[in-house]
Structures are given as structure tokens and as C-alpha cells.
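Most newcomers find our protein records easier to grasp once they have seen one. A record pairs a protein's sequence with a compact description of its fold. An example says more than a description, so a record of this kind follows:
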Amino acid sequence: VQLQACGGGLVQARGSLRLSCAASGDTFSTFSTYNMGWFRQAPGKEREFVAAITWSGGNTYYADSVKGRFTASRGNAKNTVFLQMNSLKPEDTAVYYCAAVARYSGSYVLRRSYDYWGQGTQVTVSS
């Protein structure tokens, strides 16, 4: 599975962005059954968990720092996932990555729980 994240950009504080992540590759048809995660990495910091959504879209999970501001969702065909980011803050500035796994063997907040990663998209929030 190859993942392509896009939608990043430069936005002012309190603004909004919508990231998307689409899958391609040999197992594209099964992507709809994958659990998805969003992570971010700011300069000089570790990559951290942001949000996760189960394959059905029925369950979502968020880091405390984004809860109430970010919303993860899946497209109707479930082969695209989105991260709607509202009320953005300068501290949200980072490269955002999407990740996928067929079945969680560990916690959804852990990077090692995911098998596939997108290339990342830059989000910059100006004050």
C-alpha cells in the first residue's frame, strides 16, 4: 500500500485546513478495511500521535492537544481518509503523516503499530 497525504499549507492562527490521505498499490482494494492514523512531527521533536480512525469509521481517537479541534473521517468509499483541522494554533505547525495498518497489534497511538506511511505534508500556522 502506498499512501499519499496532501492538503497542507500555510494558514493563519485560528484558521482551518483539511488534509487527505489516499491509498494506491496492490492492496488498494483492501484499504477500506485498514485502520488509519495521523501523526505529526515538528522540527527537533519526535513524531507524535494526532488522531486515528478505525476501518469502519465508527471509532475515532484524538490526542488531547487536538481534541475538539481536529476531526478524522473516511470517504464514502473508505479509500480516502481526511483530517479536518480547525482553530489551528502555531504549535500545530509540523509535517503531518498518515499511516495504515490492517489490524492493530498494539496501541493506535504508537508509531510501531502501523505498517504503511505516507510521505508527509507540511502544515505551517502563523501567529
In short: DSSP finds no helices and eleven strands in the chain. The chain has a mean pLDDT of 92. The two ends are 37 Å apart (CA to CA). The first strand starts at residue 2 and ends at 6.
